[in-house]
């Protein structure tokens, strides 16, 4: 490779990296709140900066650093990924007989295009004789139970398998449901009256940062991961070649639809990077030699 070709290649890669960094938010819209990038279809500011009201993000500048909040569900945003996930701070609301915490055994979720991730999030219960379950349309669709053994203590830094702690996955694509915390009779009235609580949590964070599940009782929030898609939309492309102006997604993208839910998600073609939801958001990453 000659010196001229090498310089051209470096210049092209620098230009591409600069372009990729500048195309996450819509032009003229705020790209970050504090330490968090806010890519389109999410956005801060006027209605033109986000896809619809569910994707509106507000920036609380009274904190240091400022904190972004997903306005539709009033949850702090920790990270947004264009692969269809968003990490949020989710309150630990469900509890019974816990000192310093109000008793609350039901939590309703209706999150528009957001559902708790079946891949990353776990519905978790801690305590003795705890019964947690998820209901939709008066039907139980998931849950787990904890038990305690006299003179036995659950191992620390262990996953929840039932002894003082249990976990269950959330059914995929669940846009609305009721989470419940109850108790069951195992012959010990004392265990039924002990503190028990439940929460949705990012399983990776939970394993890496919580050596003792009982410590979550003193936390106000824990990270959880939500899945998101664009609902009530179609790719609107007349052929399988979606690299056209008729596609909902931008150029050099793949538009994937779910006909059952009338939803879609966009992704860049291989060797392209960037934001597939913007018209020219996906840019090539191949070098001159590779091309």
């Amino acid at each position: 490779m000659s010196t001229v070709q090498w310089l051209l290649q470096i210049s092209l890669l620098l230009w591409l990296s600069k372009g990729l960094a500048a195309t996450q938010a819509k032009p003229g819209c705020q790209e970050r709140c504090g330490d968090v990038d806010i890519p389109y279809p999410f956005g801060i500011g006027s209605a033109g900066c986000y896809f619809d009201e569910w994707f509106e993000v507000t920036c609380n500048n009274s904190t240091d650093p400022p904190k972004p909040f997903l306005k539709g569900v009033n949850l702090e945003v920790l990270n947004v990924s264009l692969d269809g996930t968003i990490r949020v701070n989710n309150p630990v609301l469900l509890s019974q007989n816990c000192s310093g915490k109000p008793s609350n055994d039901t939590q309703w979720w209706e999150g528009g295009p957001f559902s708790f991730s079946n891949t990353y999030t776990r519905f978790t219960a801690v305590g003795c004789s705890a019964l947690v379950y998820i209901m939709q349309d008066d039907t139980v669709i998931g849950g787990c139970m904890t038990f305690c053994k006299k003179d036995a203590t659950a191992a620390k830094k262990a996953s929840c398998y039932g002894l003082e702690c249990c976990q269950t996955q959330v059914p995929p694509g669940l846009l609305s449901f009721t989470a419940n915390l109850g108790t069951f009779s195992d012959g010990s009235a004392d265990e039924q009256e002990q503190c028990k609580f439940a929460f949705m949590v990012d399983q990776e964070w939970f394993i890496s940062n919580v050596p003792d599940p009982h410590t979550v009782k003193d936390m106000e929030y824990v990270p959880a991961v939500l899945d998101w898609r664009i609902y009530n939309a179609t790719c609107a492309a007349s052929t399988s070649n979606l690299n056209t102006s008729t596609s909902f997604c931008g150029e050099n993208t793949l538009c994937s639809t779910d006909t059952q839910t009338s939803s879609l998600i966009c992704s860049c073609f291989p060797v392209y990077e960037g934001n597939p939801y913007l018209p020219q958001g996906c840019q090539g990453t191949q070098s001159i030699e590779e091309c």
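Residues 86-228 form a domain with the Jelly Rolls fold (CATH 2.60.120). Residues 107 and 179 are 5 Å apart (CA to CA).
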